[in-house]
Specification:
Layout: E1 2-8, E2 11-16, E3 26-36, H1 38-45, E4 71-79, E5 91-94, E6 97-98, H2 110-113, E7 124-125, E8 138-142, E9 146-148, H3 155-158, H4 161-175, E10 193-197, H5 201-213, E11 219-223, H6 227-234, E12 239-241, H7 248-255, E13 261-266, H8 272-280, E14 281-289, H9 302-307, E15 311-313, H10 329-339, E16 349-353, H11 359-365, E17 374-378
Parallel strand pairs: 10-11, 10-13, 11-12, 13-14, 14-15, 16-17
Antiparallel strand pairs: 1-2, 3-4, 3-8, 3-17, 4-5, 5-9, 6-7
């Protein structure tokens, strides 16, 4: 089969590789679509490497080239022994993480037992930690990691199940946080204003989930220099801030009457945010760090942040508990929200790359193209 292989930073090749065979309790999936995630771009550029050895050190691409792609949807084509609740021809969305339930361990680790599946003691992840990802013709995964698509949802949109599940997990973490200001707070503990920094796919998904799923009725401010991205967020009840036209701190203070925000969501991973944070958050605000990267700012920026004593929340991935059939609850919930049309991802999918051949060029320059928000490799 063919796969796009990252052999060194900024160098991908389309190669023939061995087609995987499904093991016991696994399914072979013909890949239909794969979302190109910001994390993938960080790995491609050499800024990040999540394939670690036993000591926690990154394994160089020269020793272990990677097949990226963790936002996967496809069609089941073959089943391993013992899989009885899927059939060839089923269209599925994928949880790319392998955990205790995925591997049918007799005793769950403390993380899987508490619904924190993406922090599993033995966690491994297709497309990120060295396991082959979805930028290939086929991928083999545990059958319990596959959630059946029950509608005609097209693959490019079904591939958004994973990023939506991540945002749902983040919002669930917010709702359960022991913080002065929370989404369910009352009176003085109520969040009046949320600031979302970044209106890319994550920022726009946060806006929709907060409004349509969490039922947040307060003010949502969304900061992004791109007018098109801000407009998409505004269509779902946000107010846009152009940080290039007005300083973020000044804008937030003016819009909140000097109160600042009780909840700030970093949906872009810009290091500059830590410099702006003391000026935009209320004392003991809640800050959700979703974006990754944060290059360009030294740790000294934390001094004034710490002085305001915020509650920092750092959810990662789409952790959840498991349904009765062993499948991840939050992925099933995310997929249903897409199928029902509650969350609209169509305006976010701005670029489609129609074959594996187009993927290397997409990584090399797609994010710099005008109007780019989210790219999907559509392979079927």
């Amino acid at each position: 089969m063919r796969a796009v292989v990252l052999i060194e930073p900024e160098h991908m090749e389309l190669r023939e590789v061995v087609r995987p065979a499904p093991g016991a309790r696994e399914a072979l999936v013909r890949v239909a679509a794969v979302g190109l995630c910001g994390t993938d771009f960080h790995i491609f550029s050499g800024e990040a490497n999540y394939n670690l050895d036993e000591r926690g050190s990154p394994v160089p691409l020269s020793d272990a080239p990677q097949i990226l792609g963790h936002e996967i949807t496809g069609e089941v084509v073959a089943l391993g022994d013992g899989v009885t609740d899927l059939a060839p021809g089923d269209h599925v969305a994928v949880d790319q993480g392998r955990n205790c339930v995925s591997e049918a361990r007799s005793e769950l680790c403390e993380y899987c037992a508490t619904g924190d599946s993406h922090q599993c003691e033995f966690y491994a992840e297709h497309g990120l930690t060295g396991l082959a990802g979805g930028l290939a013709d086929y991928v083999a995964l545990p059958a319990v990691n596959l959630v059946r698509i029950e509608s005609g949802l097209e693959p490019a949109f079904a591939a958004m199940t994973e990023p939506l599940a991540c945002v749902l997990h983040s919002c669930a973490t917010l709702a359960g946080a022991n913080a002065r200001y929370g989404l369910t707070g009352q009176g003085d503990s109520q969040v009046r204003t949320i600031l979302i920094c970044g209106a890319g796919p994550a920022g726009n998904l946060f806006t929709q989930v907060l409004r349509k799923v969490q039922g947040f009725a307060g003010r949502i401010l969304v900061s992004d220099p791109d007018a098109t991205k801000r407009e998409l967020a505004c269509a779902h009840g946000a107010e846009g801030i152009d940080p290039g036209a007005v300083g973020l701190t000044d804008a937030v203070r003016e819009l909140t009457g000097g109160r600042r925000v009780e909840l700030m969501i970093d949906a872009c991973g810009s290091g500059r945010l830590f410099e702006d944070m003391p000026g935009v958050i209320r004392k003991q605000a809640t800050v959700l760090l979703y974006g990754q990267g944060h290059a360009g700012t030294g740790l000294d920026a934390l001094t004034q942040v710490q002085f305001r004593e915020p509650t920092l929340i750092t959810p990662v991935g789409a952790s959840s508990g498991f349904d009765a059939d062993g499948r991840p609850t939050i992925y099933r919930r995310a997929l249903r929200l897409l199928e029902q049309g509650t969350i609209d991802v169509a305006p976010l999918v701005t670029h489609r790359f129609e074959s594996l051949d187009a993927v290397p060029a997409a990584f090399a320059g797609a994010q710099r193209e005008p109007g780019y928000i989210k790219g999907i490799a559509v392979l079927e």
